[in-house]
Amino acid sequence: MLENPPPLIIHRGFRRPEKALIEAFRGAQTSHLADAMDGRGALDYRIKPLDPANASFVGPALTAFAYPADIVAMFGALSEAQPGDVIVLANDAYTRTAVLGDIAAGMMKNKGVAAFVTDGLARDKAGIVATGLPVFCQGIQPNSPAMNGPGVVGAAVTLGDVHVSPGDVIVGDADGVVVIPAGRLRRVLDRLAQVRSAEARTIALVQQGMTMAAGAQRFIESSVIIEG
Predict the structure, then answer these.
(1) Would the CA dihedral through 138, 140, 145, 147 be positive or negative?
(2) Which of 127, 126, 81 is nearest to 106 (CA)?
(3) Exposed, middle or buried by CB within 10 Å (0-12, 13-18, 19+), for 7?
(4) What pTM did the predictor assign?
(5) Would the pLDDT of 1 be above 70?
């Protein structure tokens, strides 16, 4: 039989990207970012903002993994958080108990955390919204978790079908959350400018009366027509 793991493991020493580089992504539309990464990078559609009116954020990922029904890792991440960090807490998409409540959200806000993202659930929605902390989760569940461990902070995690490493840049808006790998930031930023430019041109054409995208038109023109 394997020995029980320690209640909490904390990995330190990961590098956060330069603040200027992080700020270059502020206000970016998540769909544009996904386009700049070949149509990928967004977390599962079920991970949505508790308050769509307060959903815009950007920051480096401080990752954590919480075992189902436990929040030791959540508090471990809070202890390690620096101002501007986004706490990204994988929870095996557990839906029997919450992994965040309004008190912990208030503590995160006090510490300067930019946002909290989890594939688990939250509770105390009204209280969380009142803190002003952008929170993304799968939904609301009043059941309370335990605090026994085990948990891990500062190691790579997977949530919402996306791999997230400490220091990756996380961007959120009312549509969802996108993860930009730290090693691709400048390349994605360059492509983001191209996506924005192409989008602006297409929107202008639609406003002028365009009824079909040029790329789609080519498929329609080469399609096989079956009468009757």
Answers:
(1) positive
(2) 127
(3) middle
(4) 0.93
(5) no
